[in-house]
Amino acid sequence: MAAQCCCRQAPGAETAPVRPPPEPPPALDVASASSAQLFRLRHLQLGLELRPEARELAGCLVLELCALRPAPRALVLDAHPALRLHSAAFRRAPAAAETPCAFAFSAPGPGPAPPPPLPAFPEAPGAEPACCPLAFRVDPFTDYGSSLTVTLPPELQAHQPFQVILRYTSTDAPAIWWLDPELTYGCAKPFVFTQGHSVCNRSFFPCFDTPAVKCTYSAVVKAPSGVQVLMSATQSAYMEEEGVFHFHMEHPVPAYLVALVAGDLKPADIGPRSRVWAEPCLLPTATSKLSGAVEQWLSAAERLYGPYMWGRYDIVFLPPSFPIVAMENPCLTFIISSILESDEFLVIDVIHEVAHSWFGNAVTNATWEEMWLSEGLATYAQRRITTETYGAAFTCLETAFRLDALHRQMKLLGEDSPVSKLQVKLEPGVNPSHLMNLFTYEKGYCFVYYLSQLCGDPQRFDDFLRAYVEKYKFTSVVAQDLLDSFLSFFPELKEQSVDCRAGLEFERWLNATGPPLAEPDLSQGSSLTRPVEALFQLWTAEPLDQAAASASAIDISKWRTFQTALFLDRLLDGSPLPQEVVMSLSKCYSSLLDSMNAEIRIRWLQIVVRNDYYPDLHRVRRFLESQMSRMYTIPLYEDLCTGALKSFALEVFYQTQGRLHPNLRRAIQQILSQGLGSSTEPAPEPSTELGRAEADTDSDAQALLLGDEAPSSAISLRDVNVSA
Length: 724
Prior knowledge:
Blueprint (H helix, E strand, L loop, with lengths): L2 E3 L33 E13 L4 E12 L6 E6 L3 E10 L39 E2 L2 E7 L2 E7 L9 E11 L4 E4 L11 E4 L20 E8 L5 E4 L2 E6 L4 E10 L6 E4 L2 E6 L2 E5 L4 H8 L2 H13 L8 E5 L7 E2 L4 E5 L6 H14 L6 E3 L6 H19 L1 H22 L24 H17 L3 H15 L2 E3 L1 H11 L1 H5 L10 H6 L14 H14 L4 H9 L8 H13 L5 H16 L3 H13 L6 H10 L3 H11 L5 H11 L5 H12 L24 H8 L19
Parallel strand pairs: 2-12, 18-19, 19-21, 22-23
Antiparallel strand pairs: 1-7, 2-3, 3-9, 4-8, 5-6, 5-9, 7-8, 10-11, 11-16, 12-15, 13-16, 14-15, 17-18, 20-21
Helix pairs in contact: 2-3, 2-4, 3-4, 4-5, 4-6, 5-6, 5-11, 5-13, 11-13, 13-15, 14-15, 15-16, 15-17, 17-19, 19-20
């Protein structure tokens, strides 16, 4: 049933004549229930109170709007069942509509009842019009959100500024991740972060949750004593005695880029406009890894694409529960702390988020159906920055590694998969997050690289991208905007009709399924990729003894991480391998790989699992006992559950589940519960690692696994890029 709050109507509403609603323009985004096409959103203000003990966020939201047509009947916003609306009110915009308003907070009272008051939006005495309560209702929309319809006064004129004020609480919201202290590194204080991409922020605050709509925002956040609050904005003030933080974002951003994090966080400067934030025990490592480097990357990006627009570029390292690798929130990149031990992956992931400052944050895809406009361009810019900073060979190695993963995903999905298009058709009700895959990144990159080759000079293409950003900054675009700008910038290419070349038509790039129509020349990386290919060929050659002897003479400890990861991925693609090959691989590499970073170790352990190599299962157990991150647990559990090792997986999960975030725990529960009681595979011989697990029965496992509702799908994160 729709939730309703029948406040008194605006004066005159009772006698207003019945009028047919105007014909609305086409919806901007099928993933949004909102009426964003009928309004201009000028600014939003958030008053937030964090209540970690109740895992609740209380909010007061002020939307500063104007209607694009006279007398709109209602304002429709994206919302979520986790978000409970308490009141809605209307008032005409005060004279200084752009001035951030003050929010008043009341401290939570003792005990569970009565509940602590909501943040209150006070009326200014005399100078500003009084608030008028509004009726509202909440209706179902999709499984990832609801629609919130707020009735508006009938006399609204077109382009007349007004405010809608909403008071709400949010509990168990997909966008808001509450962590108990034991899920942090310091185990001292609770932690909370938000993750809005793609359509989660509608559970953080009611909004036009579409990348087509951008606005500036300000926020006031009250937090428990001793908790540091950060947002994807500039911190303008901090009232220590009240635990209240003030923020302001001066440039328009879409709703999904409004982000918050709060916890036991300490800062350290790493450059003239950058600092890292991390838990105290992680801060020295984070500082040593990035000191001086971020400014180098920002300067390289500015030389290529123009001035950095966001003021500061700070980085916050989040606990392992962060569900992806990194997120490009303006002014404050979120990144998972687990990546700190993998230097090359850390470098690439941060540079990718730096590139988003121009491609994605400044110029944004207008719909989720064209995510490649952000991700493909950011990936291209990332590789131009790495080439400028670290040379072409390293860039080609990383590109080869990613394109290898793209072709692996192609085999999994099939060449006719509709999600392999750059312009994906998003059906109503489908969560746009399901469109995040390597095609968005790597096929998009290949198209952008192809465009750069058409103009014949990477520097000239850099000049074009610089002009493109300058033209469209702080707006949202579609593919035609990019391509029209490209042909206008290079009129000689337009005269040559390069957009219609047989087999490489721009339209075909956008709408054909399958692999990229053309891939980059990576020969400049051959000094790094050729040894990988040679070693892989040795291990698949006959006779094994001779091949193993030759392979053991190659010292992979001196390789780059991406070389070793590429080699192990090739072995994974060939699994299951002959058992004698796995034994020789283990003898040659197991101890060495066990001392390397997690990106290397997880790949070796997947080889162990996919080949049922029991002598190294103790390494799998130790790895899973030490990991709380989705990207290092889900792939192993998926592999364990496809063969004869499910009972081993059950035992390890039983012993480690208390250290996992509930969302990750539910995802693993779903993996483990699939096919329980239906396996026809013979059980393996008992071993040290399997002995106790073999005693488990299916009914015991089901009792363990089905206590919580599992999500609808689990994704093998080894095969996708999990940086946003």
